[in-house]
Amino acid sequence: MSSANRIDVHQHIVPPAYRDWVNAKGFSFGSIPIPQWDLQETIDLMDKHGIATGIVSVSTPGVSLGSGAEARDMAREVNEFAAQVAIDRPDRFSFFATLPLPDVDGAIAEAVYALDKLQAAGVILLANTHGHYLGEKAFDPLMEELNRRHAIVFVHPSDLPGASLPGVPPFAADFLLDTTRAAINLITSGSMTRHPNLKVILSHAGGFIPYAAHRMALICSTDGTYETGLNNLRQFYFDTALSGSPTALPSLLAFADSSHILFGSDWPFAPVEAVNHFTNGLDAYPLDPGLRSAINRQNAEGLFPQFTTSSPTDSKRQ
Hints:
This protein is of the alpha/beta class. It has one domain: TIM Barrel (Alpha-Beta Barrel), CATH 3.20.20.140. Helices cover 42% and strands 14% of the residues. The chain is built from 12 helices and 10 strands. The strands form 2 sheets. It has an 8-stranded parallel β-sheet with strand order 1-2-3-4-7-8-9-10. Strands 5-6 form a two-stranded antiparallel ribbon. It starts with 5 loop residues before the first strand and ends in a 15-residue tail after the last helix.
């Protein structure tokens, strides 16, 4: 791209203390080590692909790897780290706050702190935590607080409950199923109906939803019609992370509300080669110029009006 104007809603941050803590816990991210995060390397990649703003978040496995107190402390630590990056470079970064689910009280407290004090753009929730999926009634107090605030919720996949298939790393297929399960459960449990002010972004083009939406429609319908079920599924937002391909994009574009598609890179869990491949694929895909602009920036501006206050090319960059 000739100028930096994209808003990247699926970009990760890996605070060094968090990386050390996860490694010390012995967490295995499939066959991929948890990456290191470097500010200048991130900005260089953003400039290469025309990304003006990255909304960073802590990825899987989140912070619930020990006691509840430990999870609360680590959530606070990573949120303050991400907030400081956004303070230091407000021209380039914002962040989604990490919450220590399944500790609902702790999650509410951290959401209030991060949204009010740290000015988080929204929150990141894992599709499931220890087998407990979004949409469960136990999570309603948190969802009610987020709904009251008209919060943006970014849903990221986690490990599926149960054993993985040997030789098949979670990111290859399990993550897509995890996101899909969470989205369906949010609808069928009534959580999306009970919390209508939430704007929910699904990672990786919504997992399998665009491709299999008609298959899922009846169970997601409140009146037994396909159209209602499809409309319930279309209320989500979908990012393009690892999905800018000539096979994924047709399903996404055919299914999703065109105003609900957002740019995502998945950096740095997606390495440079993967970011290049899928971003170049999105750029090469034949799109109407208006739709391309909407995906790259305007749809995100609709969710995050704070990014419309100044031109992304006016800010001083490193």
